[in-house]
Protein 1
Amino acid sequence: MFGFHYRLERHALRFVLAVVLVAGIGGFVEIAPLFTISETVETVPDMRVYTPLEVAGRNIYIREGCYACHSQMIRTLRDDVERYGPYSLAVESKYDHPMLWGSKRTGPDLARIGAKYSDEWQVAHLVNPRDVVPESKMPAYAWLARTPLKMGDLGLHMAALRRVGVPYTDEMIANAPGDAYGQASPDSPYAAGVTKRYGDATNVRAFAGQPGHVTEMDALVAYLQILGHLTDAAHVQQAQAAQ
């Protein structure tokens, strides 16, 4: 085996052809599954997109590197399912760009963290994690509650997401700043537009407890509270399997 390799290295053209052949095989193995993506991603009627505020929260989540310590994919292993809930389906990440599945769990998986705790708990946890989880190694993010959320460019973010397949309408993109404000300000005239465009089940409330003053804390909590609730497909599948 080693003799063959040594002889191959002495002939540059043969070596280049061998590299191209091996790289081609590896590339085919990686690319081939993309041709069956329509069969891999489930079709569900209740899948919804992220609201502008949730998009902003997801951007903050990525910016702060939360994905480095928290995964967002529940594996089919029994321990995972018993601890976190139904295992993740491909459709649940259909509109995630980039994917945040991860593999490192310094902290728990967050694929189904939405609605597990109250907004007050999430805010307290972000302000000082050890106030609610004494053994936590997570850094504090108290400054998020003091930082006004930049909303003017959210339409551009959503337009970019539309180009990669997220079905945002022109109306959604045009009203992105107002919808972001309205989702965290339930008593404002903008709140009705959020439910009109994203559905009555959309979380519309002052996530950080300061109506009319939308901060990065509002956006991050809004994002965390929707994780696992873009569709009920996984729970429906689990219920059907139990019958």
Note: The CA atoms of residues 175 and 193 lie 8 Å apart.
Protein 2
Amino acid sequence: MAAPTKDAAKLMEEHKAAVARIQDRVKYFHDNKKQFRVYHGSTSSTRPMSFTRDQIVDTSDMNRIFPVDLETMTVKAEPKVPMDELAAHCLKHGVIPKIVMEFKGITVGGGYSGFSGESSMYRYGLFNNTISDIEIVLGDGTLETASRTHNQDLLEHAAGSLGTFGIVTLLTIELIKATPYVEVEMRRVDDVNKAHELFEAATKDENIHFIDGVYFGKGKIVVMFSRFVEKPSKPVLKKMEVHWFADTIEDKLVKEKPTNEKPSIVYMTTTDYLFRYDHGAFWGGKLAFTHFHVPQNRITRRLADPFLDSRTCYHALHKSGLANEYVVQDFGIPSSTVKQFVEFVNETLPELQIFLAPCKTAREIGLTSRFNPRVSEVADERIFAVGVYGRGPADPKAFYELNRRLELRSAELLGAKLLYARTYYTEDEFWMIYDKPIYEQMRKKYKAEGLPSVYDKLKADMGTGAGKRRPVRGIVETMWDKAIGNKNYLLKN
């Protein structure tokens, strides 16, 4: 027991020194009445971004993980800890976080500030709902804490706010027991309402741990129910089957024709399950082959494989400008309107696939105090995550209009989009959806008025390169950066 205690003590000593440095930097900007941006080092956002060294608070070294506490079933981590490192750290002890986002590079801080979720959110809510307390440097440099019993409103409102309440420096993450393997059952259905019914029934089955689905097109939907198992009853999926998981699913639909009565079953290691959509960033890898007119076969996929992890894909999106041509949006849509929204997306963007997963109700995950009062009309309905990923029009104006139609239709159906992606609302539209008076009241209470607002941040990101496409050069630069280990592609010299 002595060694872990010593390790934890040293980690805490280093942590306090890093926090003091951040406090000093924030206080400097506050005292000089200057706005600043928080530089994280990398991103899993598609918003165009650029940072200047003399206008940032650098948190890119905040990546310490503390020992797992099996008594409280929690683990403390700094905001830059990525999901793959967090999961590996916890799995050594037979546990995982209640929510593990599907991309390895998504960080603890990013998950908290960006309303992230995954296929266990029907049980636990969003990632921020599984954070029991935080430590945060406020806009004047003050160090504060928040939990479910102390500054509870700060814990709630700092979540999903894109860092506009301060800089979160430490988070306590709740854990659950895990086994080495996951069994995945796949069923094909032809209608969103049928998928919805199956989802709802599965939420009541205690033996199921994960629920999600993929909409491949009209009449072609796969619903997946997954559970922890100690040992697989047949071989686990191979590396390339995991890396091209969406294609693996689609292949099963064609060859095995799974039904609700006779599902297709595959096994994966728990780590592979957690990050099954990481490679190619869902199905972006397949789109990349199409974009560059490269044939897809066993050889070309093997050759491209080292460059298709989600970290590299996001790096390439920013370097190449292709984020201005590919739709990458996530929405939360109430159960009563989710079919209408999926049908609208299918008509508006035929070249797409959609990720579907049930969450908890808007009231349970804390959305009712954040959005337009009309959300109260559906506050007790289950929210569905609808991830829309596909190739849009190359024409910038048409691409802009397409994304606006998606955003505004989600609002009409009393849903909301997640703000990690590019935003196309006007300022008036934005504050009609998000509750500005509550937001400003909370910012004033916690001394965050000197920080950019959520809309300021989104608007600023829109002006840092939108419309500039350099696909071939951008991909080559990404490959070079990966080869030399350069991760600071967002930071100007």
Note: The longest strand covers residues 167-177.
